[in-house]
Amino acid sequence: VDDAIRNLRARGVIYERGTVKGLCLWPHTSVNLDELFSKAVEVSSSYGDGIKRLCDNVLSEHLVPRAFYARTGTLRYAAVKLVPACALDDLLANQPKLQGKGPDLNLRVILPADRAQQRYAREKLGQQNANLAVGLFVAVVDPPDQAAIALTDLIAWEWVMRNTPQLSGDRYAREEVTRQINQAKRNLRIRLGGLDNLAIPTGKNFEWFYSGTSSAKQLATGRELLTFLGNRCEIIYSKAPKVLNELINRRSPSSAAVGARTKLAEAMATASYKSHLGMDDTKRPAEMALYLSILRQGGFHVETDSGWMFRVPTPAEDRCNFLPSIALITDTLTAKGIDALVPVPEILQALSLPPFGVREGLQPFILAIYLATHHQRVALYEDGTYLHEVGGDVFLRITKEPEFFSLQYCELSGVRADVFSKLLRLLQIDARDATKTDLIDLVRPLAVFIGREVPEYCRKTNNLPAAAVAVRRALLDGREPVKLVFTTLPEACGLPPIGGDGLKTPNELAARLRTALNEIRTAYPKLINRLRNAICAAFDVEAETPLARRNIGDRAAQLAAAVTEPALKAFALRLADTALDERAWVESVANLLARKSPERWLDNDETEFHHQLEIAAGRFKRTEMTFIGTTRKLNGHACRIAITKSDGSEVGDLVDWNGMDENRIGPVEMEIQQILSKHGRHGLAAAMRAIWTELNAVEKSKKT
Questions:
Q1: How many CA atoms are closer than 13 Å to the CA of 625, on its beta-carbon side?
Q2: What is the sign, positive or negative, of the torsion defined by CA atoms of 156, 157, 159, 160?
Q3: Mean pLDDT, to the nearest integer, of 346-353?
Q4: How far apart are the C-alpha atoms of 382 and 394, rounded to whole Å?
Q5: Which of 75, 157, 399, 423 has the fewest other C-beta atoms within 10 Å?
Q6: What average pLDDT score do residues 450-456 get?
């Protein structure tokens, strides 16, 4: 009996009668649910007609043709919305377009209020069938009378739950309202007949209207509809890549996929000549999976007689169907004219639209492939500045902030092409692909030269001929390869622009350009040579002498072992360093004196170096004089004193008190200190005059 009672209570058949603990067939509640429900129905009736409420409150599940996903590797979906028949004209006037960011297909289910609206909707769609937007599919179903009634009950019970505060203190009433809401949801789902999820087979056939057909197509819900949508995706997105790698072929790739994509882009830029782009082919990290499924499978990275390289595959080799996307990028770049800068977001947007529909995770990688296969014709810019190489860091910035990047298609023809080819030969620059000599073949080596091969000093010094300074400014300030090669560089060399009525032969340009580049390249070695000569001159050593550095080093080594003053000792140790080669030795001394590496010097740093060298060398030689003619090494007991008058006359002497009677020196030192302390600068002046008189007399006696 107890088990039966518990079962009946759980099913809501019998209820407990409060404190008396008896049983009854209705709950103990103080809330009149029938009255509240009637009021809710009355209130909800003001929300509009039942069909419109049904469309506003029922959300249909998206449809995913998974067979299409298995064939192509791209997961596409169709967004389903219910539309009242009274809004059909508005739908046809404002048809949803495929934007590349939202759904891949748009399904609209027209719900008529009666048979007359149903007939009107079908006739209207039959007339407008050819004018429907691509990717839009419209069906007209039977009037959902029962579903509208079921929705009314659901809305009414939900209103009761929201607008009845007494339910918070009446558990039985609250449970009853919850049960009624759940029951209303089940009834609504049943009355909808599968309109909330067209992927479920219900045995019903709907007429679908779409562009490209003269009549509607009867399709059953479930598999038949999904198969049809998959086939339409293949038609609408016929030029989409087929990449069976869900790691990257998706709208929002994971952090692991982004990292793998960035690493692979880095390898594409730095190791294109290596097998597997230099990766270990015995391991299978995420980047290797991308390489094998796209670059190798798609025929982009191949081995030729000259080694591994990137190239555009033939149609027969294009197993991933990338050629349409590659052609689209070229068309987008050339649509605005040769040499025009095209923002990267514009290219990515074109890839996302039909008939391409490239996913966001794959778009940047297609861009990297395009740059690798069209490196001779395409220039990449960041904030208007040309980038000669696309490494992993640049690629990562493109994916995060594409609005700051642009591409430029550089193509040569006519007089420019002829002059450019001759210019490459005269400058002895080899094209990466001899069959496709293009502008970037010259611009990239020049950019590498001025940006990497020469130190910072060469990019800043004005100690160059005027033509070399002009060429350097053109290379540093150049933003557009075409303008740089055909206008700016010739003008920097004092020549007219190439092409048109300008320069027709490149011989003079090549000669002047070689001279200017050589001046820029040798500016730093010339600086090092000047510094070496200055060091030798400061120590009274002939710079041309083979043993000049050894002579200075030996003297410095002897002095370094004796002195303790930090600055002078550091200077002597740098001079005495024999482990460095000639250039590094000069750089070490110059770095100490100017407190900056010579590679980063400005012209005023060289002036500062000469000033500090004069001071340091003077101290060095004066200290060195303190032990000339003695057999002992310096021990701090010798001092050279010199006094120079304003007329230029000078007297000096070396005083070595090592070995003198300290008993005689000490008292005299104390007397002098007392005099100086007592008389201040007057005492110092008197001491200098006395010392001058004494030293001058000694020198005169030496001369006589």
A1: 14
A2: positive
A3: 96
A4: 9
A5: 75
A6: 86
